[in-house]
Amino acid sequence: MIVLDNVTLTYPGRTGPVTALAGTTLNVRKGEFAAVVGPSGCGKSTLMKLVTGLIRPTSGTVSIDGAEVKGPVKVAGMAFQHANLLPWRTVLQNVMLPLEIVEPYRRRFSRDKAAFQDKAMALLNVVGLGAFADRFPWEMSGGMQQRASLCRSLIHQPALLMLDEPFAALDAFTREELWCVLRDLWQEFGFTVILVTHDLREAAFLTDTIHVMSARPGRIVETRQVPFPRPRDLDVCYRPEFTGLVHELRNKIAEVRQAA
Ligand SMILES: Nc1ncnc2c1ncn2[C@@H]1O[C@H](COP(=O)(O)OP(=O)(O)OP(=O)(O)O)[C@@H](O)[C@H]1O
């Protein structure tokens, strides 16, 4: 369970303090797929940095499974808008990178390398990249790179996956393909996800719960349960109740933008 309790975050800022979040409260259950949506600059990335312990709140608390987050957390995997694969490493070597860094894998890396490679290959197979393990990132499309990035964020079996606009740079068809890849990974491994996105269809297709943030200083102003039964396929996106939910979320964000 991830809990943000009345969190305020003020950056010192070059020209004076900037309050990015003010009194933000958020609960995400273990195994839940949650999205955070809101107007540009409302503090979504700040919220991600707080949960992963990259920054500390100015006031309030962030906790994971009852323990207060006081520094970078080991239980999280992360993926961002750009895949950021290392160009001199093959796809397989990129996916294995966290195992060379994160304990307890790091100390076992030389001894268990063959088993780790099998594990990385199994993940690459799940996302349809099994045949591309020896390619370099620059030999692959943006969508393929993002698939590899998802594998890299999951190789150390994190209990929590933090995704900051992971598909924003992809074309619409590739994006929908990647939604299904992420859906399948989540269904297979059962980790908790917090997804930051501007794409309301993406949030409605993938998640259990959507949290809407106000304009800066951000706080959660509305939480919507996503009622569509699972397993979901892309057809759900064309149902009237799906379009209705997306429309309502859009109106809510327009309203909070105007209120700013
Ligand atoms: N290091 C920093 N110093 C000062 N202000 C910052 C810093 N980082 C972020 N901010 C400000 O805090 C606010 C929230 O930023 P954040 O990146 O969290 O928003 P966001 O919702 O992720 O934005 P977007 O949707 O555009 O990606 C913004 O006004 C931003 O300018």
UniProtKB/TrEMBL annotation:
GO terms for molecular function: ATP binding. Belongs to the ABC transporter superfamily. This is ABC transporter ATP-binding protein. Pfam families: ABC_tran. InterPro entries: AAA+_ATPase (IPR003593), ABC_transporter-like_ATP-bd (IPR003439), ABC_transporter-like_CS (IPR017871), ABC_transporter_ATP-bind (IPR050166), P-loop_NTPase (IPR027417). Keywords: ATP-binding, Nucleotide-binding, Transport. PROSITE patterns: ABC_TRANSPORTER_1, ABC_TRANSPORTER_2.
